[in-house]
Write a structure and sequence with these properties.
The chain is built from 22 helices and 19 strands. With 514 residues, it is α/β, with parallel strands linked by helices. It folds into two domains: 190 residues, Ribosomal Protein S5, domain 2; 215 residues, Rossmann fold. The strands form six sheets. The protein has a five-stranded parallel beta sheet. A four-stranded mixed beta sheet has the order 1-2-4-3. A four-stranded mixed beta sheet has the order 5-8-9-10.
Length: 514
């Protein structure tokens, strides 16, 4: 009777919780039992592990009663990441590996029937969890062994000790009894973080001609972290502006890059050439609420989490399902989303900047100087009514994007380059960080009163505008934060009447803006 223990991790939301893979071999009727709240793909590991061990020339104890327990038993486990630790546990329990040598290591990897190691989802999240559990102390961090295709992204975490392997045999050679394995061997290597790419593939704002008001609104949004709704006729340049917005944002810090990459790794979208590039997610308007905010069993991140620290672009906003749009209300305020199910609960970050675009009416030409709108007032009201007041209330800037005449579009000079706009954005963002430690959009409660204090003239102007427009308390607070950002862009220490007046222009109702 033999028993072995191998360490691994299971993903639950952004958490990568420790899993103890216990393998017990006993005499009796030959069987292979796997327990521990395993999903179907984990249970199928029995066949993959058996074939991989046999096809690599190792001995599979087929005459034994094999019991594999994935503890803790109440933690859901999914995917093929447990193939490698299960195989190593069986080999250690049968005496083919030295279990003492595996202490201090954690393993994850899917096995092919021939023993090759295949990449797993969430490798970066696992490495990040190990780092945080150890408090950043490299001496107490376990070493993580992964397939070579996943090890490079896990090595991006500072201080992480990551090893990549190509085949089950490459891992087995490291832990043979009495074997004096070297640090580097064929098929096995210590993985170091690759140098980050210096080329950031953002499209240039200079491609956009005209649209001074929309460009100004996007500059304010980038400087303060605000959300934007662009309203305009088809072909006016809304999508073109949104696709270039990410290039206006300041460069990502290491912590922001790790958070964004970890979510991308969970969703299977991260690649090394996208390291430190702010993501821009643009789901189709047929996307469901689950696709936007996340869900499923086990819970997976949705588009709002995959856009964490980046941009979520929703084109044709009224065409999205009502339930999907209403699900955005809480994440826009809190910066995270909690997926609750009967058996489990997962939390994902969702600190994104919303850039939304829509037509003013079903035909798209309400207010256009180029074509006549053919929609009735009832059709316009019904179309705009697809967006609820509480959702519009949470969008900081509403801007009209007018259509350009043919001669203006052809003969206009190129617009201001992204680099020049970004420099002003970075300076404004640095002012807010130095003053309050966060972007202006993140101000809450008492901090709004302290950082957005108005003089008598500015306060009177805002009170008059709020009373005439019937603003809620949220609208007033968001206008104050936008005004504070405008003041930062102007290099002003205090919020003045001109800053408040410009901010008010971006809080007009949808019908007034169109």
């Amino acid at each position: 009777m033999s028993l072995s223990l191998v360490h691994s991790r299971a993903l639950l939301g952004m958490e990568a919780r420790p899993v103890f893979v216990e393998v017990h071999l006993a005499n009796g009727l030959p069987s292979f039992t796997l327990v521990g709240l395993a999903e179907t793909e984990v249970k199928e590991a029995r066949e993959r592990v058996r074939s991989a061990i046999q096809n690599t020339g190792l001995e599979f104890p087929s005459n034994k009663r094999i019991t594999v327990n994935l503890a803790p038993a109440d933690l859901p486990k999914d995917s093929g990441r447990f193939d490698l630790p299960i195989a190593l546990g069986i080999l250690a329990a049968s005496g083919q590996l030295d279990p003492l040598k595996m202490q201090g290591y954690e393993f994850a990897g899917e096995l092919s029937l021939g023993g090759e190691l295949r990449p797993v989802r969430g490798a970066l999240a696992m490495s990040l969890a190990i780092n945080r559990n150890a408090g950043g102390h490299t001496s107490s961090m376990p070493r993580l062994v992964l397939p070579a295709g996943s090890a490079q992204e896990a090595a991006l975490v500072p201080g992480a000790e990551i090893y990549g392997a190509l085949h089950l045999l490459d891992v087995v050679r490291r832990f043979l009894p009495g074997d004096a394995a070297t640090e580097e061997q064929e098929g096995w290597s210590r993985i170091h973080a690759a140098e980050p790419s210096v080329h950031i593939p953002y499209a240039d704002m200079a491609d956009v001609k005209g649209q001074a008001a929309a460009r100004r609104a996007l500059e304010i949004a980038a400087a303060g972290g605000h959300s934007v709704l662009m309203v305009g006729a088809p072909g006016s340049g809304k999508s073109m502006l949104a696709q270039r917005f990410a290039g206006l944002l300041p460069a990502m810090t290491t912590e922001e890059a790790l958070e964004s990459a970890a979510v991308g790794s969970l969703g299977g979208r991260f690649s090394l050439d996208q390291w430190a590039v702010r993501p821009t997610c643009a789901p189709h308007h047929t996307a469901s609420a689950v696709a936007l905010v996340g869900g499923g069993s086990p819970p997976r991140p949705g588009e709002i989490s995959l856009a964490h620290r980046g941009v979520l672009f929703l084109d044709e906003l009224p065409e999205f399902p009502r339930a999907a749009l209403e699900a955005l209300r809480e994440p826009l305020e809190s910066g995270h989303i909690t997926i609750s199910r009967a058996a489990q609960r997962a939390e994902f970050p969702a600190r994104f900047q919303l850039i939304a675009a829509m037509n003013p009416c079903p035909c798209g030409y309400l207010g256009s100087t180029l074509r006549t709108c053919r929609c009735s007032p009832e059709q316009v009201s019904r179309y705009q009514g697809k967006l609820s007041g509480p959702l519009l209330d949470r969008i900081d800037l509403h801007v009209e994007v007018g259509s350009l005449a043919a001669d203006e579009l052809i003969n206009s000079a190129p617009g201001e380059k992204t680099q020049a706009i970004r420099e002003r954005v970075v300076q404004a963002r640095q002012r807010s960080i130095a003053r309050q430690g966060s972007s202006n959009q993140a101000l809450e409660g008492q901090a709004i009163d302290e950082q957005c204090r108005l003089d008598a003239a500015s306060a009177k102007f805002l009170n008059t505008a709020a009373a005439r427009l019937g603003w809620s308390g949220r609208s007033i607070h968001r206008c104050l934060k936008v005004a504070r950002t405008i003041a930062d862009l102007a290099g002003a220490e205090t919020v003045q009447v001109t800053h408040v007046a410009e901010a008010v222009q971006y809080r007009r109702s949808l019908k007034a803006a169109t």
